[in-house]
Design a protein that fits this description.
single chain; 3-stranded antiparallel β-sheet; alpha+beta; SH3 type barrels
C-alpha cells in the first residue's frame, strides 16, 4: 500500500474512497405547452438540484389551477399555468440530443 500522499501509477493521488462524481454545469428544463408547437426552454442555475425541480413540477401539476415557476440562471422567473403543461423534460446541457434520422453505430 502506498504512503499517504503518494500517487498511483497514472499520476493521480491514491485514495481509499470512491471517485468524486463529475459536476454538471447548469441544467436545462424544456416545457411543452398544450395547443402550441413551441416549447419553453429554461437554463437553470449551476447549483440547481434535479430532485428539487422534479418536486416543484409535481407540486404544480398536482394543483390543476397551480403555476409552475422556474427561475433561470440570470434570476428571471418564468410562470407556466399547470393546466397548459403538456410535458416537462429535465436534463443537463451536456447530454446528447439527437435530431432527425441517425443510425446508431
Amino acid at each position: 500500500m502506498p504512503a499517504p500522499g503518494a500517487t498511483a501509477a497514472h499520476g493521480a493521488p491514491s485514495s481509499a474512497g470512491p471517485p468524486a462524481a463529475p459536476t454538471v454545469p447548469g441544467m436545462d428544463v424544456r416545457v411543452g405547452v398544450t395547443q402550441t408547437p413551441k416549447e419553453i426552454h429554461v437554463e437553470l442555475a449551476d447549483d440547481t438540484e434535479q430532485a428539487a425541480i422534479i418536486a416543484d413540477v409535481e407540486a404544480a401539476l398536482a394543483a390543476e389551477s397551480g403555476v409552475l415557476w422556474l427561475t433561470d440562471r440570470k434570476g428571471r422567473r418564468v410562470g407556466i399555468p399547470a393546466g397548459k403543461v403538456a410535458y416537462v423534460e429535465i436534463g443537463s446541457p451536456n447530454e446528447e440530443r439527437r435530431v432527425g434520422f441517425a443510425s446508431r453505430a
